[in-house]
Design a protein that fits this description.
The chain is α+β, with helices and mostly antiparallel strands. The chain has four domains: about 5-100, Uridine Diphospho-n-acetylenolpyruvylglucosamine Reductase, domain 2; about 105-225, Uridine Diphospho-n-acetylenolpyruvylglucosamine Reductase, domain 3 (2-Layer Sandwich); about 230-350, Alpha-Beta Plaits (2-Layer Sandwich), CATH 3.30.70; about 360-435, 2-Layer Sandwich (Alpha-Beta Plaits). It is built from 19 helices and 18 strands. The relative contact order is 0.11. Bound molecules: flavin-adenine dinucleotide.
């Protein structure tokens, strides 16, 4: 690792090699650097050697080669919307942040092949818009889509609200280009649906959180735009009823079912309190009086190549049947695009409402959908026994068995104190239960810094060993995003 006294010489070499590179150096004021040195939740704050903004792959290669030569650790950064502290430097002042946001060109749209090729710094929204302009859709959808980038989406194998129908980023990626830890260009920007020529390097890079290479461009799948798209807000008497409703919806809508989200009453109330404008969408099914609010709200999304009235008929019939069978209490359908957007805004606003409310012990767990009710009931009982009065904010992608399950201390106890004293025990309760139910401790946000120790403690030892071998082989110097996801050989030996 570079010695602090070598930093001026490294910086001089950087300027000599790339004189036009946009750089935020150590001499720049804190407020200019903060968006790149602090994470979205304001939980991790580091200090970078510098933040650099390359504009093409050749510059990324030159940067990585220099970093290898000078032994400078590299943190790849896109929109810096990571929820696990994956995209900010540590406090050493020795890590170089390579931010890809200036690499934001749409390179090609191939409507006949239903694919789009983009630079890694394009925001997700930019790619969605480019697809729409070609009469197609790019279906990945996250609340952070205005800021997060395709490189970050690939590095975290992002999920979001349409996974049920279209899959995660892994399924949406046909090919990618990346810069290796040695500064070589991996030219895998292909747009084929089938390619059986050995190890899937792209799949190794997807979900690797910047620890195996820096993604510089990608070719992504596009899909036909549904002729009609409708959402419904449906109240349910229990989570078990919501699971039964999901099963009915799958049966009747088949591939037309594009999203199935659940929101617990307390998560809804938080949104109503902190982001009231967005929660109006639910006014017709959620009473103003908090005591009368049903325990679960479902947001169902459906698309169809048929006309809007046919889709509406299918949804009405599904809801009527669900109410008759006791799986639903009440529902409202979106009757315009504005209402459709408003319903989704209600769901998407919950992370922001949580942020306003304060710090929580965050989880992004996944279990088989059939086990979700057991997970929620048992974790609630165990948490209340350990921390009477603690508050749980639960919502997420029921269709994928993926819940955002966030725990805050009892009213009156400062968040920082609860987090400091009890985070480990809360995690133990939640993750032990997840393990019993054959689940995962991260269904979509990834590992980053936040869950690295949990992963090391809980992952299958052979899997962990294979991951370390891969890291060691592709990044033997341990320079790519050290301290995240999994330790390379160097970090493992220095901690022994
Ligand atoms: C309000 C909100 C809602 C969210 N909802 C969801 C959701 O529904 N589903 C979901 O999956 N996530 C969600 N996220 C998390 C986050 O938006 C995703 O993880 C996103 O994919 C990160 O993209 P980014 O460009 O911001 O990456 P960053 O945060 O900048 O980086 C994330 C990780 O990827 C690495 N990385 C970034 N760019 C590259 C690159 N070009 N090459 C290699 N490595 C790279 C970083 O080193 C880091 O480890 C949400 C976040 C917020 C703030």
């Amino acid at each position: 690792m570079i010695h602090p006294e070598d930093i001026p010489a490294f910086t001089a070499a950087l300027h000599a090699a790339l004189p036009d590179l946009l750089t935020l150096g150590a001499d720049r004021p804190d407020h200019a650097r903060e968006p790149h040195e602090q994470d979205w939740r304001k939980r991790y704050r580091g200090r970078a050697l510098a933040i650099v903004f390359p504009t093409d792959t050749t510059q990324v290669q030159a940067l990585v080669k220099l970093c290898e030569l000078w032994q400078v650790p590299v943190v790849a950064q896109g929109g810096n919307t990571s929820l696990v502290g994956g995209s900010v430097p540590d406090a050493s002042g020795l890590q170089l942040v390579i931010n890809l946001c200036k690499m934001n060109q749409i390179l090609a749209v191939d409507a006949d092949n239903q694919s789009i090729t983009v630079q890694a710094g394009c925001t997700l929204q930019q790619v969605q818009d480019a697809a729409l302009n070609a009469g197609l859709i790019f279906p990945l959808s996250l609340a952070s889509e205005g800021s997060c980038t395709i490189g970050g989406n690939l590095a975290t194998n992002a999920g979001g609200t349409q996974v049920l129908r279209y899959g995660t980023m892994r399924e949406l990626c046909l090919g990618l280009e990346a810069v290796t830890a040695q500064g070589e260009r991996y030219a895998g920007l292909q747009s084929l649906r089938k390619d059986n020529t050995g190890y899937a390097i792209k799949d190794l890079l997807i979900g690797s959180e910047g620890t195996l290479g820096i993604v510089t461009a990608a070719t992504l799948r596009l899909y036909p735009r549904p002729a009609s798209q409708q959402a419904a807000l449906i109240t349910c008497p229990s989570l078990q009823a919501a699971v039964a409703l999901l099963r009915m919806a799958r049966q009747s809508l088949d591939a037309g079912l594009t999203g199935f989200e659940v929101i617990h009453r307390d998560a809804f109330l938080l949104a109503r309190q902190h982001t009231p404008l967005q929660s109006h969408a639910a006014d017709s099914v959620m009473p103003q009086d908090a005591e009368s609010i049903p325990p679960w709200l479902v947001l169902l999304d459906a698309g169809s190549p048929q006309a809007a009235d046919e889709l509406q008929e299918s949804l009405e019939s599904l809801i009527n049947q669900a109410v008759t069978q006791g799986h639903a209490l009440d529902a409202c359908l979106s009757m315009s695009h504005a209402q459709y957007r408003a319903m989704w805004q209600l769901r998407e606003t919950i992370p922001m409402a949580e942020k306003i409310e304060g710090m929580m012990v965050k989880h992004d767990i996944g279990v088989p959908t059939s086990a979700v009710p057991a997970f929620v009931a048992q974790s609630q009982t165990a948490l209340q026994a350990a921390f009477p009065g603690c508050r749980v904010i639960c919502f997420g992608h029921l269709g994928d068995g993926n819940l955002h399950y966030n725990v805050q201390g009892p009213l009156g106890q400062p968040d920082s104190e609860f987090l400091q004293r009890h985070e480990h025990q809360v995690n133990t309760i939640v993750y032990d239960l997840v393990a019993q139910l054959n689940g995962t401790l991260s269904a979509e946000h990834g590992i980053g810094q936040l869950k690295k120790d949990e992963l090391a403690e809980r992952a299958d030892p052979v899997r962990l060993q294979l991951m370390r071998l891969i890291k060691q082989t592709l990044d033997p110097e341990g320079l790519l995003n050290p301290g995240r996801l999994v330790d390379g050989a160097r970090e493992t030996s220095s901690s022994n």
